[in-house]
Specification:
Two copies of one chain form a homodimer.
Chain A lengths: L1 H15 L21 E2 L5 E6 L6 E5 L5 E2 L1 E2 L4 E6 L5 E9 L2 E3 L7 E2 L6 E6 L16 E9 L4 E9 L13 E5 L8 H4 L3 H10 L7 E5 L6 H5 L7 H26 L9 E6 L1 H11 L7 E5 L8 H4 L7 H4 L2 E7 L5 H13 L5 E5 L5 H11 L6
Parallel strand pairs in A: 13-14, 13-15, 15-16, 16-17, 17-18
Antiparallel strand pairs in A: 1-2, 2-6, 3-4, 3-7, 5-6, 7-8, 7-10, 9-10, 11-12, 12-14
Chain lengths: ~375, ~375
């Protein structure tokens, strides 16, 4: 119906009025749509979805269980979410069982399995992910044919404000990994990594650093298979080991050739969330000659036969490690796995920092993790 | 329903099996979904959409009228589109009047008014938008607080393979503008500008150049208002004039400070599609001291009182213009407007190239426009 309306609008503009019109790419003009999301002054949020014939519409909101929406006389379903902490949130609608992003909201959270819509509950400028009028770094998107994984892939590089490729300053590098089902753009687009670093650097809280955000799959078959892929231990292990190889033998050499960076172990950090947290631990702790700073956020998918996956890891590692930081939300379904791994590290006398924060397995935790750990790096 | 299923999966993984699981961000695993899109060997394409309770589902496919889909016993609606020319296509579903992207397809065409899904019908590697194993340039994403428009905005810069910020080679620059309702990422993500340039440069058909893709609104109110905004001539004119000012006084100076570029008129080109085509003509033809190469694709929204908007434009312009290239598809609803403008240029004795190609107001035309015009630039 919406699409028909647009076609008619275009015909009308061009044939009848002889008015030049703008690009008719959109099936519905905003005037035909409910306002959604609507963020209120008290930080409550109203979401609306036009679905006159639907029998049941629910809201699937980051960190919450699906909640029923109610329909008004015009066929608009709505729900108001209680006041939220300032942050970015993802959400979707479920209309008669069909998953849908919010058609009235152009801002999306990209994901290889399920895209969702995003919204921003603004907060004070002191929050690390708020866009402030401070100098902004740049994001560089690189494309290459990878030899290890034999596919065309990409990575993003954040350079801090003042970075000058022609200058004499070399920067330390944080390799920052996304989670399962996300891709290389997740940390900049959803995690706001560049904004967080802009603010921390401006405030003098973090050292200016380069942040490299690669595609986190050693074997893309894991994401094609979906959530069950990690039950296939051979596929899981191939994904982990090829990721490490891809990072060490292709991405790091490319970065260290192209950017003005320090190239010693003390100037390399690795961090990541969920699947990327496990990749951080597996890659970092097995290559302490390469990384002195290691931080996992809500690590997921880590094999629990640790002796096999971290062979020989023991107290001499403390001489190379500047930081081993292991964080997980207390409401995260992975908190037990993370505690178990930390307990094992204790038996091995490997120094580490235990971080448990409120929160579940969501970006609300991971943005805070990045904002907390970045100031600790390269000190 | 899908969301509930996922929540259950997570609980089951963590509480019962004690298996570490991957990030539970997605409301539905791929196994619960139809395969969509499915591109067949004969280049026909099947689209599928799970909507068991819907009464009417249509496909809205780039370049075509909405077409009815049919439902099978399992509640999956499907349609097979007749064999297509190799290219990228956007599409959406309309389920009981509700616009929806394809939930089984993570690849989206971002847009400020209506996001759509995308698919690729592969073709021979000779097609300019096919990803080939050739050297790839980089995309740089810049953020800044704009003074002219008083907002936080961004632009993308493509640097060709071999570009070295520390080197002695300076490159010519193409400023490439998107259309109404798109944003700065449209040309790289939908138009494949970087891939097209990679291929043309590798084949020796185009000169290595830098391509700058800014946000094309001088006043974002036009996109907030939707398609009717261009009827408000004051808003339309403010959008056009502030865009020109933003480009000339902020973006170009930033680019010419940050990149190794030639800074003379003969080394600057401007091109754009639809609204961006009009911006190309208004900015370029009124600033021939800045641009020698001007190319509009399916220009839209151009005021028709040309004498007022192009004051003094006449044959002396031919001394400064290296190329004025005005293209439009013959099925485009804007073909009449474009012919009218070219007729006026003839009365002014301003040399230009008339390009009419098959096609409507779609990216299928604009990718070909870019691939055709880029080899002509900076010769």
């Amino acid at each position: 119906m919406a699409a028909f309306a647009l076609v008619l609008v275009c015909v009308s503009l061009s044939a009848q009025n002889q008015q030049p019109a703008a690009t008719p790419v959109a099936p519905a003009a905003p005037s035909h749509r409910p306002k959604s999301p609507e963020v209120h002054a008290d930080r409550s949020v109203t979401l609306r979805f036009a679905a006159p014939n639907a029998k049941n519409v629910q809201l699937f909101f980051e960190g919450a269980k699906p909640a029923p929406m109610t329909k008004d006389d015009s066929g608009i379903w709505s729900i108001t979410v209680a006041p939220l902490e300032p942050d970015y949130y993802s959400y979707s609608f479920i209309a008669d069982g069909v998953f849908a992003v919010d058609p009235a909201n152009h801002w999306l959270k990209p994901n290889l399995i399920a895209t969702q819509s995003m919204l921003h509950v603004p907060g004070p400028s002191s929050l690390p992910w708020e866009i402030n009028d401070v100098p902004h770094g740049d994001l560089h998107h690189h494309f290459y044919q990878a030899k290890v994984t034999n596919d065309f892939r990409d990575y993003y590089v954040y350079t801090p404000p003042g970075y000058d490729p022609r200058g004499n300053t070399n920067y330390p590098v944080l390799y920052l990994l996304h989670g399962f089902s996300d891709d290389a753009m997740a940390w900049p687009m959803v995690g706001k990594a560049n904004i967080i670093l802009d603010n921390l650097v401006y405030q003098g809280k973090a050292r200016p650093m380069i942040v490299v955000m690669p595609l986190g799959y050693g074997n893309l078959e894991v994401v094609r298979r979906g959530f069950g892929a990690f039950d296939d231990t051979r596929l899981r292990d191939d994904n982990f080991s090829k990721f490490t190889e891809e990072l060490l033998t292709e991405i790091i050499p490319q970065v260290e050739t192209s950017y003005a960076v320090e190239k010693d172990q003390k100037s390399r950090a690795i961090a990541g969330l969920s699947m990327g947290g496990s990749e951080t631990l597996l890659t970092g702790l097995n290559h302490l000659d390469k990384f002195a700073w290691i931080a996992s956020f809500s690590a997921g998918g880590l094999p629990e036969n640790y002796e096999q996956y971290f062979p020989g890891l023991s107290s001499p590692a403390n001489n190379k490690l500047k930081l081993l930081w292991i964080a997980c939300g207390t409401e995260d379904f992975l908190i037990g796995n993370n505690r178990k791994f930390r307990d094992w590290l204790k038996t091995k006398n490997v120094n580490h920092v235990d971080i448990e924060t409120p929160g579940a397995h969501t970006w609300l935790v991971w943005r805070r993790n990045l904002a907390t750990v970045a100031p600790l790096l390269f000190r």
